[in-house]
Amino acid sequence: MALRSAQEYIEGIGKIHSKIYLGGERVTDVLDHPTTKTVIQANAKVYELSQDPEYREIMTAKSHLTGEVISRNLHICQNTKDLEMRAEMALLTSQKLGTCNYRCPGCDVLNGLASIIYEIDKDLGTEYYKRLMDFTRYLQKNDLAMSGGVTDTKGDRGKRPLQQDPDMFLHIVEKKSDGIMVRGAKQHQSGAYASDETLVMPTLAYREGEEDYAVAFAVANGTEGVTFICQYNPYTVERNTEADIHQLGNPIYGQRETSLVIFDDVFIPWERVFMCGEVHYTQRAVMRFAKMHRMNCGGACKVGFADLIIGATRMMAEFTGLAEIPHIITKLTRMAQISETSHACAIAAAHKGVEEPEGSGIFLPDDLFGNVAKLNTCYGFWEIMALAGDIAGGLPVTMPSEKDLDNPEIGPYIEKYLKSAVSARKRMRLAKFIQNWVAGLHGVGTWQGAGSAEAQMLTLHRIFDFESRKAMAKELAGL
Ligand SMILES: Cc1cc2nc3c(=O)[nH]c(=O)nc-3n(C[C@H](O)[C@H](O)[C@H](O)COP(=O)(O)OP(=O)(O)OC[C@H]3O[C@@H](n4cnc5c(N)ncnc54)[C@H](O)[C@@H]3O)c2cc1C
């Protein structure tokens, strides 16, 4: 069974009894709760897309481990074509869902981690790579949904892990003959409670003395000691109280749902431990994950979101009779320019990807173009949101509810005063969709996901070859 159906995925998750809390209450049925259900539906759609012949090339790959056709979400990229298809998967799933492909961070952790532990094994004679490949075979064979746990809570960012509450960074608290005990938390974990597994890796470059923090492992949902505390915001309240989901901005797949995942002395058997104390490799581990994730997150996933915003905004301009006005055309074109620039950088990052480390067979994207993709998106997405708000007018933030439209006493007023070239209901539905993008969680989410702009600035400044550029200028200037 290398490819599960959406139904098989749902049935599988239904059998796992994870400890999940939302709004202070225990979620007893993850499949049925109005908010957690959106994550299940999004994942189910991704399973469905993998079985659709139209998307086979993007959504599936041939496993280098088993030779079987598997979900690309569980594939380790073997060439630049794989990298390009990986990015295209992020684009496609964003266009289809308007929210996360929740298996995306897990895929990028798998690729980044495989690359670094291949190197660790080669240098130190450890057997992490073989363990990770055994685990990957298991994932692929059962087509499991896996999230990626990278971001620690970090507490006081000015202090190292041992200068503050030691649990602010996830760490090993005990080593046993059969495994390790870990404690800490990972925050902002995309869709983690609707996964079968989570692959955890370090968040930071650790130093000597911080060996307990240099840890990577896999943990199955439902494992004793793991608790998911879901994000909670006005959109959560809206969804939890709204009887008709069609009156919500993204009716089926909702917001990007995350949780704070607590690891309260969780036992991890050795066969699931993929790094244990190798502090000198943690910086490279983070960088290799980031190479994958910035290409996919900045240059593909958010391009898919931008496509939805651009499409909705263009439609709104048609609804309100603005589509042919010159400044509206300029603004819509600028939106397309921003998002296609990021997309081009992702494709360039994939095409210029290289085997890393040599001999591993693992391909990672070009660092420069991947970082530029994400950095461009960090700034560009705000501008896209602003331009959508400009063209759509104030309605996305001032509109009444469709319930008012349905009220016989005031409904006729709404219909009369909010109609345009189309009915009030049509315009309000679209305004609500735009509200979901421009007046909610997506601005900060896009800026921070895969690291804030400063993380990409630092990388860009480090890897950009300023010296060669100086030499070019020097030669022509006759210096
Ligand atoms: C919607 C969403 C989904 C996400 N999904 C996942 C996921 O599935 N898995 C996962 O592991 N993570 C996930 N993330 C986490 C994401 O990678 C982080 O939000 C991001 O790396 C920033 O970390 P932070 O939120 O702790 O912010 P902070 O680290 O507090 O950053 C805030 C600001 O402080 C700056 N800063 C922080 N520390 C320092 C320092 N030491 N020196 C100088 N400046 C500093 C940063 O550059 C930034 O400007 C997700 C985030 C979002 C918003």
Helical content class? 40-55%
Compute the average pLDDT: 97
Biggest sheet strand line-up: 2-1-10-11-7-6
Shape-level CATH architecture of the largest domain: Beta Barrel
CATH topology of the largest domain: Butyryl-CoA Dehydrogenase, subunit A, domain 2
Return Rg in Å: 23 Å
Number of domains: 2
Query: Runs with pLDDT <50, length 5+?
Result: none
What is the count of helical runs? 17
User: How far is it from the N-terminal to the C-terminal residue, by CA?
Assistant: 66 Å
CATH class value of the largest domain = Mainly Beta
Give me the secondary-structure category.
alpha+beta
Give the distinct bound molecules.
flavin-adenine dinucleotide
Instruction: Please state the overall shape, judged from the principal axes of the Cα atoms.
Output: globular
Strand portion, in percent? Answer: 5-15%
Largest sheet: 6 strands, mixed
- The CATH H-level superfamily of the largest domain is Butyryl-CoA Dehydrogenase, subunit A, domain 2
Number of beta-strand segments: 14
Topology of helices and strands:
Blueprint: H1 6-15, E1 19-22, E2 25-26, H2 36-50, H3 56-59, E3 60-62, E4 69-71, H4 80-97, H5 104-124, H6 128-142, E5 146-149, E6 171-175, E7 179-190, E8 197-200, E9 215-220, E10 226-230, H7 234-241, E11 258-269, E12 273-276, H8 282-319, H9 326-351, E13 354-355, E14 363-364, H10 367-392, H11 395-398, H12 402-406, H13 411-418, H14 424-438, H15 442-448, H16 453-463, H17 466-477
Parallel strand pairs: 1-10, 5-8
Antiparallel strand pairs: 1-2, 3-4, 6-7, 7-11, 8-9, 9-12, 10-11, 13-14
Helix pairs in contact: 1-2, 4-8, 4-9, 5-6, 5-8, 8-9, 8-10, 8-14, 9-10, 10-14, 10-15, 10-16, 13-14
